[in-house]
Structure formats: C-alpha cells, structure tokens
Specification:
The complex is a heterodimer of chains A (about 130) and B (about 260). Chain A has about 130 residues and is mostly beta strands. Chain B starts with a helix and ends in an 8-residue tail after the last helix. Classes of the chains: A mainly beta (about 130), B alpha+beta (about 260).
Chain lengths: ~130, ~260
C-alpha cells in the first residue's frame, strides 16, 4: 500500500492530544479520559462530515473474532487544514487507533491517534 | 486686451467658485452618507481564527473556548435556577450528547457572544455602512451597521441580536441588543435573558492580530458585567469552509453507541 505523505504542521502532538476536546463540537462526558484504548483493524467506513468525522473498523479480539469498533475525530474542517482529505482513509485500510474509551463499555472511542499500516501517524488534526 | 482681461477675470472667478469641486470636496451631504465616506476606516478585514493565550495551562485553555470571564459570573436567582436546569456538554456540569439540552445540538444559532467560542474561523468583510462577520460555524452571519443608525425602537427579538457600530479611533465599538432568550451565554450552561446587552471593542493590534474586548450586561441574569478578551490570528491562506451543523444524520446514533453496544 502506497504511503500517503500529508503536509502535517510541526505541532507538538502531545500538546494537541491533551487539548483535543478544545476543538470539539461537544465535550468528552461519554468517555473515560483517564484511560487509553488501542485497536488495530480494518476500516469499514470513514464518514468525513460535520460535526465530527466518524470512523468505523473491524478489530479482532483475543480469540480472533471480529469486534466492531467506532471512533470519532474532530470536524473535517480542522482535519482538512491539517492535511487530511475525505479519502485519507478508505474501507479496507489497515490502521491502529488509540483514544479515550466510552464509559459505557461500548466499543467506541474518542480518537487521539491514528497510525497507518506502516506505522506513520495521521495527525488527528486541530488545524494550524 | 479688454476682452481677454474680462475672460481672464471670469475664468479666475469661475476657478474660485469651483475650487472646492476641483480639490475633490463635495457639496453638503446628509449625515448618514458623511459618516460612511468621510474618513478611511481602519481595516479589520480578513479571515481570523481564535488564538488562545500562548502559555495557558489546560484548564484556562478549556475555559477560553467554553465561557467568558474569570470564574463564575455573579448570577441573580433567576440565572442560578436556569444554570441548574442546563445540561451542557462542556464544563463542570457536563453530560453526554444523549442527555444534553443545549440548543446548539438541535442546530439552533449559538447567539452572541457565544458564537466566538465555537472553534471555527470567521471572516470580516467591510462594506460602506456595515461590517459583516461571516462565521464558518454553521454559516452564521452578523451585520454590524456603521452607517450611523440607531437600534430600531421596537426590535423583533432574534437569535444573534441587532448590532450597530461606531469607530473610536482604530477601535470598532459594536453594540448589540434585541436578543431572544433561547440561546445560552456560553457553552457551560450560563443563561442570558432578552435584556442581554453586548458591547465589543474590536481592534487590530498588529497586522495579524485582532483583539476583541467583550462587555456583557444582563440585569435579569447578572449583578455585575461579565468581561472577557479574545484574540484572533489572521489566516491569510484560509478560506471560510462550509460547516453544516447536522450534516451527518448518523451522528446521534454514533453518540448512543447504537452500532457497537456494550458487551
């Protein structure tokens, strides 16, 4: 798979990760912001729309069974300014996502990091 | 000779009579038109994006984009009750998207000055007689009339209020009243009434910096004015993009975790 190079602003990712809720349309009340969950899987849907970009993927549990996961990013407006496009991710892409897990226990997260198959990060994007 | 002298004198007299026109001065104009064209206005135009304080700690950063002023505003009993009833998505009383009653999540306009808290850029366009603010957030628009008019006597209450402005040196002083009471003052649930009165002092302090000093008064809700300052950075390469509040009908299902319920 061809590695896409994106023009990513040289911003401190750690700082951005901590302040992600700032550029959000809503708060993180549904999520446990003291924990991080990581899921590796295959993109099944990438909805590049306002208010928040939504990502759906099939992960695998320890037994190798498919586990459906979803995650939300920020507005596509911010992501575009950070170099993303509506085709930055496509169904079939192998990615790893990390973020705050849903308090309810559902397979849902507030994404703070996206890694492509080759391990290079996509900036979850706060604009520049 | 005499004819030539006469013509010369006539010519001179005509020149004197029409000198004002020759030097670019126009005859007396109505006051409104004079206010528009008499002096060049300071230039506030451009695409601007909110710029939080450089060294702010995370709690102050969050506050910068969610409320105004320092600490809790001095609320009346009416405001305290409304604040208690609010179920915001931000701040100390925040709830989930499923439980919130914040009107913006039904895609109602955010009101003024709350619109400044929604973290999307705005474009200022100056026209004769008005300064127009085009907000990326849900394509909100404000017209700040600088043609000398007063607020209408019997204002229809609106979500974004009625704004008039005048220049004090290089500062645009915008005065907004005529709000309905359907919006929240901020994103953490503080209310306002239809007596809300917002004064903004807007000034370009550097080529790439806009400063907006806010003075928020609402005698029904607050016993003291709420004051706040926001800074905006010029973004010469940015265009205002479309941002439709509920563009994705799947969004609410997502927030309810309907496709990925708890095991």
């Amino acid at each position: 798979m061809k590695t896409r190079t994106l023009t990513i602003a040289a911003l401190a990712v750690v700082f951005l990760t901590n302040s992600l809720p700032l550029l959000a349309h809503h708060g993180t009340a549904s999520y446990d912001t003291s924990k991080t969950v990581t899921v590796k899987g295959t993109v099944t849907d990438f909805q590049f729309m306002n208010p928040h970009v939504l990502l759906f993927l099939d992960g695998k549990d320890d037994n190798g069974n498919v586990q459906k996961w979803q995650g939300e990013l920020t507005s596509p407006n911010h992501l575009e300014r950070a170099g993303w496009t509506r085709t930055s991710l496509k169904p079939g892409d192998q990615i790893t996502i990390s973020g705050f897990p849903a308090k309810s226990g559902a397979n849902s997260m507030w994404i703070s990091k996206v890694l492509q198959a080759d391990g290079t990060p996509l900036n979850p994007g706060l604009g520049n | 000779m005499r004819n030539r002298l006469t013509y010369s004198i006539l010519g001179l007299l005509l020149a004197i009579a029409f000198a004002p026109l020759m030097f670019g001065q126009t005859p007396e104009q109505p006051d409104a038109a004079k206010a528009r064209t008499s002096t060049a206005e300071p230039d506030l135009s451009g695409v601007w994006n909110a710029r939080p304080p450089a060294n702010a700690k995370l709690p102050d950063l969050i506050a910068y984009f969610s409320s105004f002023g320092k600490g809790e505003p001095a609320m009346t009993a009416w405001a305290e009750a409304a604040y208690k009833a609010a179920k915001p998505s931000f701040g100390p009383n925040s709830v989930t998207m499923e439980d919130t009653n914040d009107p913006v999540y039904k895609c109602f306009p955010p009101g003024v000055p709350r619109v400044y808290l929604h973290p999307f850029p705005l474009q200022i366009v100056q026209l004769p007689g008005q300064v127009v603010m085009l907000f990326e957030y849900d394509h909100m628009v404000r017209h700040i009339y600088t043609d000398g008019r007063e607020h209408p006597k019997d204002l229809d209450p609106t979500w974004m209020g009625h704004s008039i402005g005048r220049w004090e040196g290089d500062i645009l002083v915008a005065d907004t009243i005529g709000f309905n009471d359907k919006t929240w003052l901020d994103r953490v649930g503080h209310p306002h009434s239809d007596q809300l009165h917002v004064v903004e002092r807007i000034r370009r302090t550097a080529q790439d910096t806009l400063q907006v000093d806010l003075n928020i008064e609402d005698p029904k809700a607050y016993t003291k004015p709420v004051t706040s300052t926001m800074f905006f950075q010029l973004k010469p390469k940015w265009d205002i993009m479309e941002q439709v509040c509920m563009d994705n009908v799947n969004f609410l299902n997502f927030e309810k975790n309907e496709d990925v319920p708890a095991k």
